[in-house]
Specification:
The chain has nine helices and 29 strands. It has about 600 residues and is α+β, with helices and mostly antiparallel strands. The strands form six sheets. Strands 1, 2, 5, 8, 9, 10, 11, 12, 13, 14, 15 and 16 form a twelve-stranded mixed β-sheet that branches.
């Protein structure tokens, strides 16, 4: 019997009723209809797309349209920034040349012509400006190493009419998000921005006190004698006279410098400028502004921070000399220059500290050569409308002194102690005479010292008398240029070469300690008489320098004129009206051959 498949029948399950989707999940602020929700989503997406497109297109639509390339005359081209005329740009460069440094060819006392570097420094005596000792001039502080000034971002110097500069930091300028659009230019003729080697130039000036040959000036600069005849013919002179000035612009080379331009200015204000052309010949140049422009563009590292330094001495007392020296040193002065400034101020009665009578500013002029160190050649104190000037001058001796414009030595004051190793005894007062035994006024002061100790002249002057008296014993008397006289008594002897009428300098040995006359032991009796009256030599403050006369005074006046010329040369020249374009008769070689490309 065949068995069939087994069929098992399960009981039927109850049907599960289906529920709508909107009943399982629903947001109360949305409609229940699916079509309505889809419509809202499409609307929101469209609005977002439109807003995004507007944000992108709006800045582009609102900006000016790009002009199509068209042919235009160069004069019609609109520059993105206003530019000065060529003449004004060249004239403005004159405010940048020099850097308050000048190389001057001078004739020494031996007749040799040497090159000296002059540097001008101004001290401002107030507390408003910030002191920057790190930027002080290495020239004034006797620092042989050049001070390197690091700058994080470059700066552009803009020049105003008065010659002052305003620094504009390029990093601080805000760049636009979009490129600037203007009139298109044909860039096919633009010069490629390739770095060209910088020409090194040297400028030399001669402002002689006496006639100076061109050959000596060129020789001191290292220029060969073959250029002398060419320059003499071009300038129509073979020497520079007093009152005239000659400027030479030379291009430094491996072997010797090459003379490029020369400018001769006469005492009457006339000028003659010559420059080399492409044929290597000197030709006249009617506009001298290229001279300063090309030189200044070849000096990228201009130590302008060393020109002015601030000094604040208001809070110091008159006796705090150590603090005064320290702050002068921070301002850039060497120790010797600071001492000279303090001495000259004291000799003229100019207080450096406090506010009453203190100077507003002080101008200093330094000189330096390869063979010698720094010398403070000139100092000028400015106090309101008053100015006190002092000049370093050598008057026929190995030592130099500071004189005023009238030839009066001002740095020296009467020495109160002519015996360096002496000890003060009886002073300028009443006393009982040790030998006579009577009460008598002591008209001088005594200094006890070993027998034979040297006695120095208390100041510059002329030996008036070498004699002996009962009370004085042997003595020597000196008449000083200030109109007073000093007497040195009880001496043992005088130097063998010392004669009556001979000029002596302060600190020169004039006698030796003895015990002649009414004396109880070796000592010096030091006496001072002013206009016939006895004065206390310990408290008298008298000028002890030389008052120049005759040929010596004429020599000082020449030095004064020379220094004043250098100070004027280092001054920023005033703005002058300049033509809008350069003259067309300039030598072509100035731009093509021997000179760097000027900004045009």
């Amino acid at each position: 019997m065949t068995e069939g498949p087994l069929y098992v029948q399960f009981p039927a399950e109850a049907a599960i009723p289906a529920q709508p989707h909107h009943e399982t999940f629903h947001l109360p602020f949305l409609p229940r209809s699916a079509h309505a929700r889809h419509l809202i989503g499409l609307t929101l997406a469209s609005a977002g797309s439109i807003a995004l497109m507007a944000a992108v297109l709006y800045p582009l639509i609102t900006r000016s349209a790009v002009a199509l390339p068209v042919l235009a005359h160069p004069a019609e081209i609109v520059q993105p920034m206003p530019l000065a005329l060529k003449g004004n740009r060249l004239e403005g460069k004159r405010h940048f040349d020099g850097n308050r440094f000048a190389q001057v060819a001078e004739k020494t006392s031996s007749g040799e012509t040497r090159i000296f570097t002059y540097h001008r420094l101004t001290l401002v005596f107030n507390g408003d400006a910030e002191q920057r000792p790190e930027t002080a001039s290495s020239f004034a502080t006797d620092n042989e190493n050049e001070i390197e000034t690091a700058s994080a971002t470059p700066a552009v110097e803009t020049y105003s009419g008065g010659g002052s500069t305003q620094s504009v930091n390029l990093a601080s300028q805000r760049r636009s998000r979009f490129p600037t659009r203007g009139v298109p230019l044909n860039v096919s003729v633009a010069t490629p921005a390739v770095a060209k080697p910088q020409h090194a130039f040297q400028r030399l000036v001669s402002m002689p006190k006496s006639r100076q040959d061109l050959s000596d000036i060129l020789k001191s600069a290292g220029i060969g004698t073959d250029h002398r005849d060419e320059l003499v013919q071009a300038l129509s002179t073979d020497a520079v006279a007093p009152g005239d000035s000659l400027e030479l612009l030379m291009e430094k080379g491996d072997a010797q410098p090459k003379l490029i331009m020369a400018k001769l200015r006469g005492e009457d204000g006339s000028e003659r400028v010559v420059a080399r052309n492409d044929s290597d010949r000197f030709v006249p140049l009617s506009d001298d502004r290229l001279f300063s422009t090309l030189y200044s563009e070849s000096q990228p590292d201009a130590p302008s921070s060393s020109e002015v330094a601030a000094v604040d001495l208001k809070d110091l007392g008159s006796g705090d000399q150590a603090a005064v020296r320290e702050r002068l040193s921070k301002a850039g002065l060497s120790q010797d220059a600071g001492e000279h400034l303090i001495e000259l101020a004291a000799a003229k009665g100019i207080p450096l500290v406090g506010t009453d009578g203190a100077p507003d500013s002080v101008d200093l002029l330094f000189r330096k050569s390869d063979e010698s160190g720094n010398q403070l050649m000139f100092i000028e104190f400015h106090s309101g409308d008053e100015a006190h000037r002092f000049y370093l001058h050598k008057d026929g001796s190995d030592t130099s002194e500071y004189y005023d414009e009238k030839g009066h030595s001002v740095a020296k004051v009467l020495n109160h102690k002519p015996v360096p190793n002496g000890k003060l005894g009886d002073g300028f007062a009443w006393r009982i005479h040790p030998i006579l035994g009577v009460r008598k006024f002591h008209n001088g002061v005594d200094y006890r010292a070993p027998m034979g100790s040297p006695i120095m002249a208390a100041g510059d002057g002329t030996v008036e008398l070498i004699s002996s008296q009962v009370g004085y014993g042997k003595y020597i008397r000196i008449r000083h240029d200030g109109g007073y006289e000093t007497t040195y008594a009880h001496i043992s002897s005088t130097p063998s070469g010392l004669k009556v009428g001979q000029r002596v300098k302060q600190g020169q040995v004039i006698a030796y300690v003895g015990s002649t006359g009414y004396s109880t032991g070796p000592h010096l009796y030091y006496e001072l008489r002013v206009n016939g009256r006895y004065e206390n030599p310990l408290t008298a403050k008298l000028p002890a320098g030389t008052n120049l006369t005759g040929a010596s005074l004429d020599s000082l006046r020449s030095q004064v004129d020379h220094v004043d010329s250098i100070m004027s040369y280092l001054d920023v020249p005033p703005t002058e009206s300049a033509p809008s374009e350069l003259p067309m008769d300039r030598p072509f070689g100035v731009f093509n051959g021997h000179m760097p490309h000027a900004r045009r």
